[in-house]
Amino acid sequence: MKKSLFLLMLTASLGAYAANHEIKMLDNGKDGSMVFEPGYVNAKVGDTVTFKATNSGHWVQSKALPDGVADFLSEDGKDFTLKLDKEGVYVYTCPPHRMMNM
Description:
Elements: E1 7-11, E2 20-29, E3 32-37, E4 40-44, E5 48-52, E6 61-64, E7 80-83, E8 88-93
């Protein structure tokens, strides 16, 4: 199984349009089992990220966030959308599959 760090790389931008980035929570993906796909997103301040509960039994929890950003924890099997208000790196995990590097 491929080991990797799942994170959001957030960069400052004065762009006029906010984008929504979708990250699927999967039992099986192109990088193996129990994965977020894509594994990282390069987003801008003002963008949103939607974690899609593509397979049941997954949810998302923050692990490391920029200073001043509130921790987050979604519900089991439900989509979760996060608005990115601060520049920085957002690290997250799937609590029941943390030991599998998800």
